[in-house]
Amino acid sequence: MLSSDLRPGAVDALLFDLGRVVIDIDFVQVVSRWASHAGRAPEDLAARFVRDEIYHGHERGTVSDAAFFANLRRQLGIDITDDQFLEGWNAIFVGPMPGIGPLLVRAADRLPLYAFSNTNQPHIEHFSSRYADLLGHFREIFLSSSIGLRKPDAAAYQHVVQAIGIRAERILFFDDLAENIEGARASGLQAVLVRSTEDIAAALQALGI
């Protein structure tokens, strides 16, 4: 969906992904910290990193932090401590996406805002306090490791839609990954692919916000 397809009155709620939509993230920061602890080149670790089933399980809350870090130890071929993994893991958060704060303030004045993110417990503990003011604009935040479901699975969108209590076709979803946008649309939501904050601004303008 393009912002040109939207119009005032077309939606009753806005649903936002968090990473690279509300909070900027940079995985280079993660592998750089790990590489520094391990005495390795960051690009070597980045090439070895795979979002496998252990990674997905960690996001669903079915794989513990210790098991996730143990898998990373094998996958990356490095021997650093869990605390060092955690320190690097949380370095992914850069700050609010440029210009997102005022857009959320404006949007929250007109429509209920919700968030839905694929994430894990260490990241939740980190960003929940660090970005509390920014996240305070959302009536509810659905987190994959808390609900046991992750995008782009249909069951995840169905869970969120049911919890919001608004028909799927009346919810507009913002995400930076095409697969999540496709999953949302397949579940009946309206959706906008976010490449920058300008995509959100254009959608809000089309909605008359």
Automatic annotation (TrEMBL):
InterPro entries per record: HAD-like_sf, HAD-SF_hydro_IA, HAD_sf, PGP-like_dom2
Pfam families to which the protein is assigned, alphabetical: Hydrolase (PF00702)
PANTHER family assigned to the protein according to its UniProt record, in alphabetical order: ALPHA-D-GLUCOSE 1-PHOSPHATE PHOSPHATASE (PTHR43611), FLAVIN MONONUCLEOTIDE HYDROLASE 1, CHLOROPLATIC (PTHR43611:SF3)
Protein name: HAD family phosphatase
